[in-house]
Amino acid sequence: MNTLHNILFSVYPYICLSVFLMGSLARFDRDQYTWKSDSSQLLRAGQLRWGSNLFHAGILFLFFGHAVGLLTPHWVYEPFISPAHKQMLAVVAGGVAGAVCFVGLTLLLHRRIFDPRIRLTSHRTDLFILVILWVQLVLGLITLPFSLGHSDGSVMLVLSDWAQRIVTLRPDASGLLNLAWPYKVHLVLGMTIFLLFPFSRLVHVWSGFATVAYLLRPYQVVRSRRVGLPTRQER
User: Residues in domain NarG-like (predicted)?
Assistant: First the structure.
């Protein structure tokens, strides 16, 4: 079990990150025509509008919340907020964002499965990735009561230390041994989503980040080209 634990939390993260980065680059280089979200808005827009807006609002908050919460060193926020208060903030904010995201994702999944027209035009990977995201979201919501049981912030510190060690190439999964099972399954499935990212419609997320870079681009200078009017002799 210790060997499996070390493989899942010390080796598997680097496999997932490598496939995530290299696979995304390879797909952009070789299959740019598949680099899209495959929207089905033309088939049915009402439920999509609510589901998509709720899902994207919730998932973006959760993504950046996880990134900031896990990767910010303890000494950076220690003068302003204690680990216990930070964990409570994460539980409350993450719970609200998770509930919003859950409603939106459930609407999208219901639409894909029970609308005959949309189901016929959906790829298997579309349904597969939605189901994985839905299960991952449910697991995240399940961890909230466990986090409330550790109100001292100890669980948050353990998870942050593991994530920061992965990023700084100093893997150490020993701190995760005593965590409850929802945390471990949530971590493994989250890493698996990064592994599947380049092979699914999720690659369009890169385009969303590229849009921000597009807004910050310098102005394009366009000069008018003067064309001389014909003289009376040329007429």
Answer: 6-225
- Token digits of residue 133: 């995201």
Residue 66 marked as a ligand binder: yes
Q: How far apart are CA 217 and CA 200, in angstroms?
A: 29
Q: Taking the complete model, does pTM exceed 0.85, yes or no?
A: no
Three-state secondary-structure class, residue 54: helix
pLDDT at res. 181? 94
Judge contact between 140 and 98, C-beta under 8 A: yes
How many other C-beta atoms lie within 10 A of the C-beta of residue 219?
A: 5
The residue length of the chain stands at: 235
The architecture CATH gives domain 2-25+43-215: Up-down Bundle (1.20)
204 is known to lie in a ligand binding site = yes
CA 136 vs CA 62, 102, 105, 119: distances in Å = 12, 10, 11, 22
Domain ranges of the chain: 2-25+43-215
Query: Does the annotation list 5 as a binding residue?
Result: no
Q: What is the C-alpha separation between 22 and 19, in angstroms, rounded?
A: 5
